[in-house]
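Notebook p. 47: complex prediction with zinc ion.
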Amino acid sequence: MHINLKHYGLDEYFQQQANSYESWLVARVTVQHREVYNVISEYGEIEAVVSGKFAYQAEDYTDFPAVGDWVMVERVDGNYGRTVIHKVLHRRSALMRKVAGAETSGQIIAANIDTIFICMSLNADFNIRRIERYLTMAWDSMASPVIVLTKADLCNDLPEKLNQIYSVSMGVDVISCSSENRMGYDTIYAYVEEGKTIAFVGSSGVGKSTLINYLMEQDVCKTNMIREADDKGRHTTTCRQLLLLPKGGIVIDTPGMRELQIFTGNLSKTFADMEAIAAQCRFSNCSHGTEPGCAVREAIANGSVSEKRFVSYQRLQREIAYAGLNSRQLENEKINRMFGSKGEMKRVKKQFKNKKSR
Ligand SMILES: Nc1nc2c(ncn2[C@@H]2O[C@H](COP(=O)(O)OP(=O)(O)OP(=O)(O)O)[C@@H](O)[C@H]2O)c(=O)[nH]1
Ligand SMILES: [Zn+2]
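Predicted complex, structure tokens below:
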């Protein structure tokens, strides 16, 4: 069996990293169970576990592979048994969430997503503040967000809702759609590209599965069940979490994507307007409370910024602080996410130089 991994999104960025591990095979994670993964290599799909050394060296959950990750595995003959994951290649993007409980460590929900569709229905689920949260998270993941408003058929004030969305979406594309008449579906399709990975987030019931089934041209869960051994060797069936679309492109749909809590957020992009105004406050550390010369309070007073948006901005700021990370840690976190670690970044740079000078 020979599988063309380009269809699964293997491009120059990952191939170049993979080239530096000659004795291992490059593969992409398609399913994550608790400790067992499914990975697809050019020889087909196989179960995999991380090596003992890998687990020992991992500092937190984010170091472990996630669905969408490109990994280096040991070569195995034939498509049976389990292979060993030795390395996670540097992620181009990573969607994170808080780990349940009080821990401040994050968990990767999915990696290497190119376009993330933020779904919200135009009826019951409609909530501008929720869009702000998702946008903040999407920007931070380094995937490009697109807003998808579903159930347009159940909405009788679309222009007004769209205006509300535009006021917070800052140049992000907005698509409204309906499964009733397939309005907007072609526009969504236009974002799907050979070798590019997409994902859908949003509250339960907004219509994510409906859209995925449409793109897959079939009922995903019914047709993509795989039989495999669980941790205890029992045979179970699971749904693939990374799927090839029939006309090219890849969709990631993991249980964790379906409800997301904010872990880290990139406020400066979602709230570029607020930050620009805040930069004009007399004091650089202005809390926009009672300080004199506060440009934010002035903007609210003269109506150029809505009070609600300001409250939402402050709440998100607090949440990010609660996640236990200051801006410096956030930066480090980003470097880690992109390059594995600072040491790893140096190693890759060096490798690249050596290659060029050869
Ligand atoms: N009227 C209308 N109903 C829709 C539309 N899209 C989806 N639905 C219905 O909404 C319900 C929920 O849709 P799903 O696609 O299962 O929603 P989901 O976001 O995948 O939900 P979870 O699996 O819980 O995350 C289903 O009954 C769909 O038929 C739409 O555009 N218009
Ligand atoms: Zn101020």
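Notes: The chain has 13 helices and 15 strands. The radius of gyration is 22 Å.
Next step: compare against the earlier run before touching the bench.
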